[in-house]
Amino acid sequence: MSEAGKRAGGPVDRPGASSRPRRIGRPRDARADRAIIAAALELIAEQGVYELRVDDVARRAGVGKAAIYRRYHSKDELVADAVAGLVAEIKVPNTGSTRGDLLELMRQAVAVYTDPIAAGVMPSLIAAVGRDPQLAAAMRDGFLADRRAALAEVLERGIKRGDLRRGLDIALALDTLGGALFYRLLVTGGPIDRQFADDVVDLILRGFAPSKRRAPKHATERDPR
Asked: Highest-confidence range of 11-20, 102-111, 117-126, by mean pLDDT?
């Protein structure tokens, strides 16, 4: 099995995705689930999102097209689940410090985006998301939502600890964390490594630190008399 297949989990059933009852029959084959996800990721990395064809996924995964259509109602759903498969279940860290928590999440992200499959998938995916509202919605509701929720929880905990200022624009902080990563991945091509993760976290902690209170005037100025 390919490395992508080892990483990829099975598809996630989304409540409300279909009102049709499930058919009674053979249970789904977990190996086929993994093979479909792995094949989709590899083909996106090689060819791009728009060039992805269900026929090609089925052929590479060694399954019939019907097996894919039983799992997904559209190519967008397949793409969204495939990309979600790049990231294992996200657990919110609690290291005891805001810096430690943010470092843990950023280092997880670095590990993902230095993977050859992920590095090949993301440029095509970002381009497709900008032109396909349905795919953009699928990505926001799946892959991005889970990651942003984990980061938001860490940031909110940092506010309560006093490490980050009250009234912090959480969305802006999240965009700053993710934006630095994607800009380097998609635009500059600079190194994405442990040092990069450390520097981005320190930038966030400095930039969104609590405002220093000014000392009372009488405490800093001598009486001229």
From this structure: 102-111
